[in-house]
């Protein structure tokens, strides 16, 4: 009764390739002999789409399969001719067997032996029992077709099929891949896993190598534990299989031709990875344990945050390894690693991701809990951020500090469930079975190389000690630690297994352990594949960027004629590109600006900064929400043709051999995106790398990146970074969330010349500021508060000559021809409020007041300010005027600099007064009328306090 067979087929929740393949088999039978299939199937096949006028035989199998899948998706069922009787009981059972196979593929991982401690309580999966399919033990010896089950034969007994499914899908690893929509990928996994029944044969050398790596992992921890008892090291103990896993990833990706691997990881296991994977000299590590300070580092960081670089040899050649420095904020290093990888790929013109591989190592609790994990996954296939797939490793020790996995750490079944949102395949593997770990590792590398997508290995293990070595875990996890205390190490378990298999003798096992210990005693490198004299040919030379002072002047002028030629190229658009009306007007205006017929606005000057830098050989990368157009519609670096939607980027059309100009609207993330750009900028010193916030204050969604990396990375880790953050800022009456870029936060974080904080107020200033950021070899993050209404303000304009000849002015003196002798009041300010003050002063003809703009608030230009104030010898009042409330803006953080300058002024006892909004909890008020009143008052105060 095909009708009921079909009903079963279509009602099964597992309908996909497997059942489709059964139908395909029926179809093949039908092709050979239409009478060999039940009448209703025959009737159905006869109605299938026809090719060349012939029914059936010319229809490609894929067409049949697609047709069935389409029907399944649209929830339609093939019409059976009649509700006749079952064609055969066997046929019905055959369908059940296929469903059972699908169930194992989908849910076998839930019955796998994943927990080395045996503490996971997992419910029985009824889908994996015969009873759920009305099959019984009596069917075990019946022969069924195996469908697409890749076990080397087309037919097998149910017993054989069940055995194969159990060993393949429910052994010491489990795989989640059936959520992947792409059937090619699913079949790839089936082929790879089922064909070897989840357990490839390994040679004795491979086994010995696995043991050697485990010996190294355990040996280092034991050594450190004995030599430095009670010192925090966040040991890998319990998760030692990480070391052979990494070894395999590096070696295997090297064999694919990968040339660089960038790793990100938190504390756990880091020292072990540094010594046993990257080949850091153990002696250097011991020095750190002994608290010896490195002379060339700034304030430094704890040893389990340190990065490292080395080269190792693989069968495919030398591979450069870089472990990223990172703070304690878990997971934030992942997008930094992605950015660094993308930068290396761009440098190598590696558009597929073959040459540079990212590896992200996570903890189970953090992977499940931190939102940046989701953001990073979301980036993984986007144009701006993709890196050809990341290999994620979760060191799943089943506890987060003291928070237990059950009940508290998450709501999902696995800590890795978030990865399913991008259909990443997920391997769960028992960390105490190094051979299973090796198998899934090989699959993960091969999958990433073949499909260029993220893949996750969830290594289920345990934490032999507390969160760190000074922490007592049994107080909070008593039962778990009762088991752990008695549990043999992974190395012991595996060594016993190999001795049992005759691969090694017990004496040899012991010898290996002692050899490793001796190497540590001698302070020898313990990574055999380490390249002692690495090929530095492809390294970036950072030497030109070291040891510069911010005060060193560098010429940012640019030949006027070439500038105009570049501007003309930008506005010379291809035929057929139909611009939207306002955009057309902007381009038309830019033509006039290039010809000197119109005063230059912000958009033009900013664009010319990019064009001139590109012309001089510097790549430019800009990302952020809406950057192509610009939140306030001033940039229009990406033009969208109105007739066919095509995007045209004039800055990529300057010349054939120009450097990259990358501009991408980002996904709506701040944290991961800013971290990515930090990673990119710390890997690319010769480029202008910009992240722009939609509104300035939105960077606070990425505060961790600002605090832990951008403002402190150089001093903690000696890593320079020339990242530019463009943060729209200005009090325009738009309410609390669209006014302030929280200038005070950056000024409070400013110290030791760590960053530059600038508030350019003219087009020429933004032009020279951006050019200076690249041309001056100093690599310091630039925090630039950019305007909104000034983008179109009639007074905020510049001339071509100012672009061609000028430079960035940290302080802009009074611009009107005011006699300094008459000036008794100076108002100092930054940003948009300057134009309000200027208009007021002009309206009131108050020529006793000079207005001075401080365009760089950090490093504070004390000398330049002193020079600007020097001509005013009759000063009575100096006022700092700001739009921000008193507890915000520059007032609290910058006044000491201004006072210091005033204290040295010819006029003695000059006091610095304040004109600005009252202190406020919110950055700005929400009522436009209140805003106007406050604005009026602060301008008045500037002239009268
Ligand atoms: P990596 O490829 O990241 O391992 O970097 C190789 C070497 O380049 C490092 O060991 C540093 O000496 C240098 N280097 C890399 N990035 C930076 C940076 N952001 N600032 C200063 N030096 C760097």
TrEMBL record:
<dbReference type="GO" id="GO:0004591">
    <property type="term" value="F:oxoglutarate dehydrogenase (succinyl-transferring) activity"/>
</dbReference>
<keyword id="KW-0560">Oxidoreductase</keyword>
<comment type="subunit">
    <text>Homodimer. Part of the 2-oxoglutarate dehydrogenase (OGDH) complex composed of E1 (2-oxoglutarate dehydrogenase), E2 (dihydrolipoamide succinyltransferase) and E3 (dihydrolipoamide dehydrogenase); the complex contains multiple copies of the three enzymatic components (E1, E2 and E3).</text>
</comment>
<dbReference type="GO" id="GO:0006096">
    <property type="term" value="P:glycolytic process"/>
</dbReference>
<dbReference type="Pfam" id="PF02779">
    <property type="entry name" value="Transket_pyr"/>
</dbReference>
<dbReference type="InterPro" id="IPR031717">
    <property type="entry name" value="ODO-1/KGD_C"/>
</dbReference>
<dbReference type="Pfam" id="PF16078">
    <property type="entry name" value="2-oxogl_dehyd_N"/>
</dbReference>
<dbReference type="GO" id="GO:0045252">
    <property type="term" value="C:oxoglutarate dehydrogenase complex"/>
</dbReference>
<dbReference type="GO" id="GO:0005829">
    <property type="term" value="C:cytosol"/>
</dbReference>
<dbReference type="InterPro" id="IPR042179">
    <property type="entry name" value="KGD_C_sf"/>
</dbReference>
<comment type="similarity">
    <text>Belongs to the alpha-ketoglutarate dehydrogenase family.</text>
</comment>
<dbReference type="GO" id="GO:0030976">
    <property type="term" value="F:thiamine pyrophosphate binding"/>
</dbReference>
<dbReference type="InterPro" id="IPR011603">
    <property type="entry name" value="2oxoglutarate_DH_E1"/>
</dbReference>
<dbReference type="InterPro" id="IPR005475">
    <property type="entry name" value="Transketolase-like_Pyr-bd"/>
</dbReference>
<dbReference type="Pfam" id="PF16870">
    <property type="entry name" value="OxoGdeHyase_C"/>
</dbReference>
<dbReference type="GO" id="GO:0006099">
    <property type="term" value="P:tricarboxylic acid cycle"/>
</dbReference>
<dbReference type="InterPro" id="IPR032106">
    <property type="entry name" value="2-oxogl_dehyd_N"/>
</dbReference>
<protein>
    <recommendedName>
        <fullName>2-oxoglutarate dehydrogenase E1 component</fullName>
        <ecNumber>1.2.4.2</ecNumber>
    </recommendedName>
</protein>
<keyword id="KW-0786">Thiamine pyrophosphate</keyword>
<feature type="domain" description="Transketolase-like pyrimidine-binding">
    <location>
        <begin position="600"/>
        <end position="793"/>
    </location>
</feature>
<dbReference type="InterPro" id="IPR029061">
    <property type="entry name" value="THDP-binding"/>
</dbReference>
<dbReference type="Pfam" id="PF00676">
    <property type="entry name" value="E1_dh"/>
</dbReference>
<comment type="function">
    <text>E1 component of the 2-oxoglutarate dehydrogenase (OGDH) complex which catalyzes the decarboxylation of 2-oxoglutarate, the first step in the conversion of 2-oxoglutarate to succinyl-CoA and CO(2).</text>
</comment>
<dbReference type="InterPro" id="IPR001017">
    <property type="entry name" value="DH_E1"/>
</dbReference>
<keyword id="KW-0324">Glycolysis</keyword>
